[in-house]
Amino acid sequence: MRAYLVRRLLALIPTLFFASLIVFSTVRLLPGDVIDQMIAQNDIGSKASREALEAALGLDKPMMTQYFSWIGAILLHGDFGNSLWQQSPVLDELLARMPVTFELGAMALVVALVVAIPIGIISAMKQDGWADYLGRSFSILMLSVPGFWMGTIVMVFPAIWWGISPEVRYISFREDPLGNLAQLAIPAVILGTALSAITMRMTRTMMLEVLRQDYIRTARAKGQTERGVILRHALRNALIPVVTLIGLQAPILIGGAVIMEQIFVIPGMGLLLLEAVSRRDYPVITGVFLLVGVVVMLINLIVDLSYGLLDPKVRYR
Amino acid sequence: MSAHSTSVSAKAALPAAVNRALRGVVRLFREKPLGAIGAVIVVVFLFCGIFADWLAPYGINQISPVNRLKPPSERFWFGTDHLGRDMFSRILYGARLSVIIGLAGATLATFISITLGVVSGYFGGKVDMIVQRLVDAWMSFPELVILIAVVSVVGPGMYQIIVILGMTFGIGGSRIIRGAVVSVRETMYIHSTQSMGASTWRVLWRHILPNIMPPVLVLFSTRVGSVILVESGLSFLGLGVPPPAPSWGGMLSGTGRTYMYLAPWLAFAPGLCLTFVVYGINVFGDALRDLLDPRMRGSR
User: Fold this and answer.
1) Neighbours of A17 (CB within 10 A)
2) Chain A residues near residue B278 by CB distance under 8 angstroms
3) Taking the CA of residue B19 as centre, how many other CA atoms within 13 Å lie in the half-sphere pointing to its CB?
4) CB-CB neighbors (< 8 A) of A280 in chain B
5) Whole-structure pTM value
6) pLDDT, tens only, B93-108
7) Between A153, A254, A280, which is nearest B152 by CB?
8) CA distances (Å), A300 to each of A250, A292, B136, in order?
9) What average pLDDT does range B282-288 have in this prediction?
10) In the prediction, which pLDDT does A33 show?
11) Is B143's Cβ below 8 Å from some Cβ in A?
């Protein structure tokens, strides 16, 4: 297990290197001089001279030097640079915003699983019955409804009909845990139902596969209750690919969180990114970009490691 | 169906490809009724997009201050917005925008997927290793986050969006093509072609490419839906196609949103159309996958 973990962590290095290269080059090498755009579209240009700006971004040095000084500062000092707007360290901002997005993401994931797994199981147990058709139609429909439209509808219609509009000021978990959960509940439900569609389909497919196995018949033959057969024998075996899917959905979840944070004005990483984009605050953009990539990679690593807990047959070598 | 009647009169003259396509359509309707519904939605959507100029009762940006924020009526089927523009016409033009972006983005994405997938899968070895690590790294970023970061540099606009969406989905999709290439590469007919001394180019073009067409077609069809959905998401965030272009996502955001409280119909049409079209493409893509490539069943 430890050897496996070490190997997986080592294998992460080239991927991380490429990821950092992608982040670096996306924000710096694309057509259109960053400085020109900043001067044209921002009042930063009027405050500082072109040379000062280039020096602040380190753009006056060769590309290789720029890359290594950028990644070196992050790796050695955790220094993501300073925000061009507030002059404060980007890292502080990232650390402040990250838990909010995580909370939203975790809540959405819980919603997705709570919706998807029972429906998936019932759908598989009653294959081609009305419950199955209902569940599947719901799933395909949820795949097609854009989250931002649902969010807009949820914002607009209660306001028109009942004069209710969600709190725009963010309530942090520390000052009011219940208020905070209530505030995040609606975006989490929207995000979660969208996510549940794929999970539900996967649960159904895997359950159907597992329920055909010999050991399920054996379990039934020895007099195990149906509940026991489903929960202890079938579900546990069907769940492994579903867990992989959760790992694969991490990027979708974070992408969706960006939109939800924008609609419901939740100060997470997504909103930070959008604010930074509107101000062309490149150190912040690069910081969020890189952090999100690293987080997704770690989630996938954790997912891989969790197989051992779900399936004792899996040995890490 | 006019195509059917011509197929009777000039059957012999019909190229084999058309004949095959027609038989495919019949099979789709017979075996996959839900997929056929999806196909009908897709056709209607394409029709609206292509003929928006003829179908739309009003101009794309025809402002009429007297008629601002009118609810749906006989004159304005979907109502009007805060500038008095007819929503129905804008939805039709929005379909055209989505058709252009969806098809162009998905075509570019498929092209990139094929290039990367074939190079990585066929040549294998170090090339494969490096390309796959790059793809790994790329896929650990949420599409939307990459897109937002890139748009922050190149600025919003239709062409930028097509190129960026094409690249993003193209790199992600290359995995599927690579898988298909790897399984084809080891077949007997490829080995025999190679041993007969066929050039690498010939093997790739004449033997590998035709045999990976089913996953390519499925990938393309599902990508059209993804591209449309993500474009509308970006436009909703104000980072896609800038107004006054009638992007469905853009109509739901910005100024449109502030008037929704007075004119709730503004919120309905763009979202419903988007849902319908993406639903159609999804179901059609699923059916296509089941018919063309049974191996991929349940992979999504």
Assistant:
1) 14
2) 143-144, 146
3) 8
4) 152
5) 0.81
6) 888 888 889 999 999 9
7) A280
8) 8, 12, 11
9) 82
10) 55
11) yes
